[in-house]
Amino acid sequence: MELIELIKELVMVPGVSGFEEPIRRYLLEKLKDVEPRMDSVGNLYVTLGEGEKSIAFMAHMDEIGFVTTHIEDEGYLRFSPIGGVDDRMLYGRLVEIFTDRGIIHGVIGLIPPHLSTAEDRKKLPTWKDLAIDVGARDKKDAMDMGLRPIQPGRWKKDFAILGKYIVTRGIDDRVGCAILLALLERLREKKLNKKVTLIWTIQEETGLRGADAISAKMQFDEVYAIDTMTSGAMPGVPYHLSPVKPGEGPAIRFIDRRGISSGFLKDKVVDIAKQHGIPIQLSITGGSTDAAAVFNHGIRALPICIPVKYTHSPVEMSHIGDIKNTIELLEKIAEA
């Protein structure tokens, strides 16, 4: 499958953190020819090659979203965010709620200017102030539709190509999942001099829990977390806060809010990239990746990330060239 179509498919499959079953089923189908394994918490992995040395590449399959918490007597649904959800992206949105009967659409309604004051319009409502309207007459009607508390949901997604850019919600980190699938196709027929494990983790957005669990049970010499990194290259943002640019190559996310990654691996990857003429960036940012959880288990870990504008918004934006260069870089690391 062509890379862009693969990313689009991955983006559209549901997989809110803690409710990853749909995206896990999709990945299992994609991996069925290579005997994928699943650990007790739901991470998936495939191991290729032989040798004493063991390295791993991991990408998280989960995405941010929300969970329903309560159905009011009037039929409106209350909800709670899952992961790093910005209140600014909630108001006036079309959402999807995933039920046993399929997808139920709803809206987080916008109070129109006809019914609000100028002072009201200056206020930013939080998720605690908002409710989802599913078109139900009352609570019974909503329940008859199949709605219940503790059902996952997300904002309805679009997918667009703007020149050399992909724009959608969920590049973080379905692009990493796609990169590992593409890497698998490149490596599966090669004679590798080491064990190379590709891992699709759960619950990164809610505490790096999948990476933590698998790192406690499996022994690796090196782990590379394949994720995204917020770019500061946008209007209104001091670039130095996250100085990477889409289109200038994958980024080594050396320092973030969870600490400093392996200097040994940083130097190794920079050297490999230079040897093969692969553009690469080195920077710091906020947030975190699965690498932090791996590092806590005494394993050398390094995030290699796709620069993304407008992270955790409905319009995450990444450069197609960076994605292709990342696949190339990971192949060279596996062969080194």
Radius of gyration: 21 Å
CATH architecture of the largest domain: 3-Layer(aba) Sandwich
- What CATH calls the topology of the largest domain is Aminopeptidase
Average pLDDT, all residues = 95
Major sheet summary line: 12 strands, mixed
> Mind telling me the CATH class of the largest domain?
Alpha Beta
| Number of domain modules | 2
Uncertain regions spanning at least 5 consecutive residues: none
CATH-defined superfamily of the largest domain: Zn peptidases
Q: What distance lies between the first and last C-alpha atoms, to the nearest angstrom?
A: 27 Å
Number of strands: 18
Q: How are helices and strands ordered from N to C? A: HHEEEEEEEEHEEEHEHEEEHEHEEH
Shape: globular
Which band does the percent of strand residues land in? 25-35%
Contiguous helical run count: 8
The structural class is: alpha+beta
Structure characterization notes:
This protein has eight helices and 18 strands. It has 336 residues and is α+β, with helices and mostly antiparallel strands. It folds into two domains: 3-63 and 170-335, Aminopeptidase (3-Layer(aba) Sandwich); 65-155, Elongation Factor Tu (Ef-tu), domain 3 (Beta Barrel), CATH 2.40.30. Helix 4 crosses helix 8.
